[in-house]
Specification:
Layout (H helix, E strand, L loop, with lengths): L32 H6 L1 H9 L19 E3 L5 H9 L13 H16 L8 H30 L1 E2 L5 E2 L21 H16 L15 H4 L6 H8 L9 H16 L7 H15 L19 H4 L4 E4 L8 H6 L10 E3 L1 H4 L27 H6 E2 L3 E3 L2 E3 L23 E2 L8 E2 L5 E2 L6 E4 H16 L10 H12 L6 H5 L3 H15 L6 H8 L7 E6 L4 E8 L14 H6 L10
Antiparallel strand pairs: 1-5, 2-3, 4-12, 6-9, 7-8, 10-11, 13-14
């Protein structure tokens, strides 16, 4: 962290309300704090650095879990899963998120001086200051959450520790040597930033006049036209009050989980915040009908499923080139495991066991329709041909081309645009993609998990139960109705297992499984399994790739370089 420069290199941002200006050259193009105070473009540029490093769905950390194998031999998540995780090698580290914290702290210092003028109009200027201060506080809380999720853990004495919490900008020669707060104190500090942000941010951008939040309408001489200048739809992808409430629910569920506080009060907080947001879209009736394929077309990307996303990029083939099977000119990088495939129930909703009609020699018949949507199966139609991962499959056959052909018998389909073309002659037809930071389906599952932990399958939180949520999600998936298996679930324990399984399926390959296993305290060393058609029969491959985590790997290490530099930092136990 000491490597942060003393002066801020500015990213200039031009919005609809500030005209572009030509600046005189500044020595070394390094602009000091005094300049930032006098230039609103520069100040906003500092704030927007807080939007860098937001976690989206494209980490593919599932390769370090029982859900997937990465077939690139030197892939960092593969190395971690195979036993290389340590305090000097941790691909899942998020300690670098503190850099974004210091950007927003620098911006908050700018706001506090009151010297930066966003507009000559006093009311517009006040509302800009309110909104952007709210953004900064929310982003500060979010980046601290990223660090907490990756680095909270037990000390050698067994104390549950959190992280240092930075609320000021620190110059390069300043004191970064702060101790870790307790875990709960860290959670409370993040919540405090979120709560303060909620009193400054609009619930949504582009609100109609009758729906404007009271902390704006109560301003002296409030004017809706001026309000629109500050908070119209132009800013839709910025963090809002709605997003902050969802982030509070995510944080509270994390804190409440068995590996951390196992706390009813935090489950209540998670459920209440989730329900408050979800009831604004009609509760379970508002579940997006195409939400389980939010990535499959431009229309889906822009659908009601994305609670928060980045702007939609230009046409590209990057992810498809990495993931498509070799026969359609992909590198087949991420291979779902048979463990993951068996998590999908039968089409009638019952678990995929032989007692429920599962046939090991016809393994994909009568299964949950999401299986075909998310995984390229042996014999599946894909890219204009048939993908055969068994005998006779050519380049698509299991282990045919090391580092390219599948190692498990499966290829990834989820997150990929089905209409992308990668032609034999090297030409391509790309499609647009978007980084998604928060989906409504995740928020529904947060509510279901928290509500069930509070009072079981039928405990209501603002009129919504865990059973309601899971019923809606499974109905959307195409599970046959009535869902007799769901109806048979009566205990908190059984509903817990079902919710966890639905979360595994619905949020698959979006970077959740890696963290969910840890917060739930579930085994990390389940071997990755494969499934291979040998020409006459399917054969299970019980250990395509081992998982070799230390017993204390539920909690990830603090980077060793930070421990060596800062005496106040205490390492997590075992590292």
């Amino acid at each position: 962290m000491k490597n942060l420069i003393k002066y801020i290199s500015i990213v200039f941002v031009f919005t609809s309300f500030i005209a572009c200006e030509t600046l005189e050259p500044v020595e070394e193009n390094r602009l000091d704090f005094e300049f930032i105070l006098t230039d609103p473009n520069a100040a906003e540029g500092v704030l927007l650095n807080g939007y860098t490093g937001l976690v989206n769905q494209y980490s593919f950390s599932e390769a370090a879990t029982d859900d997937a194998v990465n077939n690139i031999l030197d892939n960092n998540y593969k190395r971690m899963a195979l036993g290389e995780l340590n305090s000097q090698f941790n691909p899942a580290s998020r300690w670098g998120s503190f850099e974004s914290v210091f950007w927003v702290n620098r911006f908050l210092e700018t706001i506090e001086t009151g010297e930066t003028q966003w507009s000559r109009d006093e009311l517009i200027n006040e509302m800009f200051q309110m909104r952007m201060k709210g953004e900064a506080l929310a982003l500060r809380g979010l980046h601290h959450f990223y660090v907490l999720q990756a680095h909270a853990g037990e000390s050698a004495s067994g104390e549950l520790l959190g992280i240092p919490y930075f609320t000021e900008f620190i110059e390069a020669d300043g004191n970064f040597n702060l101790p870790r707060l307790s875990f709960e104190a860290s959670v409370q500090a993040i919540m405090a930033d979120f709560d303060e942000a909620l009193n400054l941010l609009p619930t949504d951008y582009g609100l109609s006049e009758g729906n404007v939040d009271e902390w704006y309408t109560n301003l002296e001489d409030f004017d809706y036209v001026k309000y629109q200048t500050v908070n119209d739809n132009f800013f839709d992808l910025r963090i809002s009050g709605r997003i902050v409430k969802a982030l509070k629910a995510r944080l509270a569920l994390f804190a409440a989980s068995p590996s951390f506080l196992d706390s009813q009060s935090y489950y209540n907080m998670a459920a209440t915040n989730a329900a408050e947001v979800l009831n604004t879209i009609g509760g379970v009736a508002g579940l997006d009908p195409v939400g389980n394929e939010f990535y499959a077309s431009d229309n889906n990307i822009q659908s009601a499923e994305s609670l928060w996303r980045a702007s939609i990029g230009g046409n590209s083939t990057t992810y498809e080139k990495r993931m498509f099977p070799p026969s359609v000119n992909g590198n087949g990088e991420i291979n779902p495991t048979h463990n993951f495939v068996m998590a999908f129930p039968m089409q009638d909703g019952y678990p995929a066991t032989q007692a429920n009609g599962f046939d090991p020699q016809n393994p994909y018949a009568n299964r949950d329709p999401r299986l075909e949507k998310y995984v390229v199966l042996n014999g599946a139609s894909f890219g204009g041909g048939i993908i055969n991962t068994g005998v006779g499959g050519g380049n698509d056959r299991l282990d045919s081309i090391p580092g390219q052909s599948t190692t498990t018998g499966y290829y990834l389909k989820k997150l990929l645009h089905p209409d992308v073309l990668i032609n034999d002659d090297g030409t391509t037809q790309g499609k647009r993609h978007a980084a998604v930071y928060f989906r409504y389906t995740e928020l529904f599952l947060i509510l279901a998990e928290a509500a069930n932990e509070i009072g079981g399958p039928d405990h209501q939180v603002d009129g919504i139960t865990a059973r309601d949520v899971i019923a809606a999600i499974r109905s959307r998936a195409g599970i046959a109705q009535s869902d007799d298996y769901l109806a048979s679930i009566t205990t908190k324990e059984d509903m817990r297992e079902l919710i966890r399984n639905e979360r595994r399926i619905e949020l698959s390959f979006e970077g959740h499984r890696f963290w969910d296993l840890r917060r739930w305290g579930l085994p990390l060393n389940e071997s990755a399994k494969g499934y291979f058609f040998n020409g006459s029969n399917y054969v299970e491959l019980p250990s395509v790739e081992v998982r070799n985590y230390q017993s204390f790997a539920t909690y990830m290490p603090i980077p060793n370089s930070e421990i060596l530099k800062f005496s106040e930092l205490e390492q997590n136990n075992g590292w």
